[in-house]
Write a sequence for this structure.
């Protein structure tokens, strides 16, 4: 059993038939593309992709900051004016 992570689903043949309609639907929320009733992919809007990419970058930067905070070196205080 495959988990589908979207409220809207279309078959791959429908995507081939009317891709513009699927892209329009994806502007509102993710659309799962099914091939033989299994998820073959997802279509999302550029805005959703940008939000996902920003979130991933934030997670990566948080991990770097935590690693540096816990590296054993003494923190150095600076003010915004000094930067």
């Amino acid at each position: 059993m495959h988990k589908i992570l979207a409220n809207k689903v279309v078959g791959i043949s429908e995507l081939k038939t009317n891709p513009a309609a699927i892209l329009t639907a994806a502007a509102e929320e993710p659309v799962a593309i099914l091939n033989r009733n299994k998820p073959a992919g997802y279509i999302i809007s550029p805005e959703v992709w940008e939000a996902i990419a920003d979130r991933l970058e934030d997670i990566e930067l948080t991990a770097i900051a935590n690693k540096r905070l816990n590296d054993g070196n003494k923190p150095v205080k600076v003010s915004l004016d000094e930067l």
Notes: The chain has a mean pLDDT of 93. The domain at 8-69 is CATH 3.40.1620.10 (YefM-like fold). The first helix runs from residue 12 to 17. The CA atoms of residues 61 and 67 lie 10 Å apart.
